Amino acid sequence: MQHLKCPQCNGTAKKTDIRPIYATSITVVDNSERDDALRLYEAEKSKRNNLEKLHLKTSLQCQLFASENLEMKKKIMELEYQLRLVNIFRQHFLQLMVMGDILLPNLFLYPQRKKLMSFTLILLVE
């Protein structure tokens, strides 16, 4: 048989040393409020995790849109530069037309044509 020890004094105890203790009254503790609070805590924790995931997703989308926006701004600047060059060429071309140094093909004589025709500019050299 094992020798049991007293939890208070750590001395050895025999079976005859053990005596039953009877409670005069037993009360039940109501833990429903604590359980409700734990459920609310878990629900809020879940909502917070979902919101953090949503925040991460939207911040990544924002970064993606910002980079796309930057690329589009660069493309717009490039196209505006090309447009300026075209306008300069057009003005120079119109000046040459006014001076009579260019013979115009049928494309300019018939502007209702939708199809772009390839043509050669003929410069009059004097």
Comma- or semicolon-separated keywords:
two-stranded antiparallel ribbon; two-stranded antiparallel sheet; 126 residues; 57% helix; mainly alpha
Q: Helicity range of the residues? A: 55-70%
Question: What is the overall number of helices?
Answer: 2
Query: Which geometry do the CA atoms define?
Result: rod-shaped
What string, H for helix and E for strand, traces the elements in order? EEHEHE
Query: Over the alpha carbons, how many angstroms does the gyration radius reach?
Result: 46 Å
Strand content: 5-15%
Strand order of the largest sheet: 1-2
State the end-to-end distance.
Answer: 132 Å
Number of DSSP E strands:
4
Output the structural class. mainly alpha
Return the average pLDDT rounded to an integer. 80
Give a short account of the largest sheet: 2 strands, antiparallel
Unreliable stretches (pLDDT < 50, length at least 5) are 106-112, 114-126
